[in-house]
Design goal:
Length: 106
């Protein structure tokens, strides 16, 4: 069944952004092929803003493509950065509580 229009991408991105925020990341970036309006609008709806454009840096189906970086601030910038919590730590803490396959599932 087609997932388009069922907000699955929004739910997955929401979970991903929540996880990386809890890990301590303060910025998130998306790299989108210029002209992919659906992806551009999707990311803008999540709060991403255009940040940079790279000309002719991708090649697909016989043509050179531009790529656009989109940026989302996940939190305010601290005075000094803190090392993010590794994903393996999060998995060891929370996966046993929620994962149906049992620990370790990664």
């Amino acid at each position: 069944e087609d997932a388009h229009g069922r907000h699955i991408g929004t739910a997955l991105y929401g979970a991903l952004l929540a996880l990386v925020s809890r890990q301590g990341y303060i910025n998130c970036y998306a790299l989108i092929t210029e002209g992919n309006l659906a992806s551009e609008e999707f990311h803008k709806a999540l709060g991403f803003e255009p940040a940079a454009r790279l000309e002719h840096c991708g090649y697909k189906m016989g043509q050179w493509l531009n790529l656009c970086y989109y940026h989302l601030a996940l939190s305010a910038r601290p005075q000094a950065p803190v090392k993010p919590v590794p994903l393996s730590v999060w998995l060891s803490l929370f996966c046993p509580l929620f994962c149906p396959c049992g620990p370790p599932c990664w």
